Amino acid sequence: MMQMRVAVLGAGVIGVATAYELWCDGHEVVVVDRREEPASETSYANAGMIAPGHAYAWSSPKAVKTLFRALWRDDLALRFRFQADPQFWRWCWKFYRQCTSERAAYNTRRKVALCLYSQQRLHGVVADTGIAYGARRGGALYLYRRREGLERAAATAQILRDEGVEVRMVSPDEAAEIDPVYEPVRDRFAGALYAPGDESGDARLFTRRLAAWLGERGVAFRMGETIRGIETEADRVTGVRTDKGKLQADAYVLSLGCYSAPVGRTIGLDLPVYPIKGYSVTLPIEGRNNPPTLSGVDEDNLFAFANYGDRVRMTAIAEFAGYDWSYRPEDFAPMLKAAKELFPDAGNYDEPEYWAGLRPMTPDNLPIFGRGRLANLWVNTGHGHMGWTWACGSARITADLLAGRTPEHDVSTMMLRH
User: Which segments constitute the FAD dependent oxidoreductase domain (predicted)?
Assistant: First the structure.
């Protein structure tokens, strides 16, 4: 394989993981990002779950009903804000067309398969680098407040089982045996689905430590450098203009999350990626409280949670709000209310760290790989709410495609069309 100079555009978990795989293949790698540190946008404070056991497609008949109700309600897990942006309406139409039962099942199967491959790749990266990132194995619990919801979910989970994911229904007593945090609140939920293979970890910590590891081995990180444009000639990228000069390489990888689409349009790439905002609260544990040991989701309130050792993080809401990073303390009130009911001693609720981030979603909820008309520009973007779960698998796939190899995992249905 010919060694090249490769520029990775974007230093989130996807970009840094891609830099690692390219470095492993012997390439000279440079990463450029407008932020001062890696993982400062979508990867900064996400849920942290690595969750094949929760890989259902968001685009589904249920999502359409919820979004319709969100037109006049503001207390739902899915929220809709009207946008003037024509790209938003194009994206919404494509999303709507994916919201059939058949498409939801098909997309879920593809999501699960990529989850399992990527989880395996993550373990390989950690074994190679020794990076610590607050990893917790032992599974995840998906809680249901009502019996009928639990039974429906147990039946729906067959699609995950068919793809090789272990998921089983447990009673409140069994959930308390798996994670003692539920012992004092067993009467507050009907049961749970337990996915023993799921895990969690701090995506920001992983990304920054992997970047530092790579930096010690010669990978260049040009942080605090904003991309102003991509220069092309015929069918090739000839350089990337930034506010600090020009970046030139033999090949380029576009991993700018939600900003991949607007940047792509400047060079003729039509990427169906649009931001869906999520909210998170991080609480200090401070050694005296009773946080959940394992990650999971309160399915009736749709908030996720994970323990990072000294902190517990809770995340919720998928808001169709465009490129809006803003948030208010009251945005987190429903999540915190539900969290206190289940985990009254999870952490110091008086010292919340609020955050909102933009998930780079595609209509079918799957990432986009490959290249368009430009022979030396590769795309690795559109990972939505599964970026942390999919990062290492997507990175290996991209490195293989760039090298002209057929990836171990079949991504033929996720390739960029041109």
Answer: 5-401
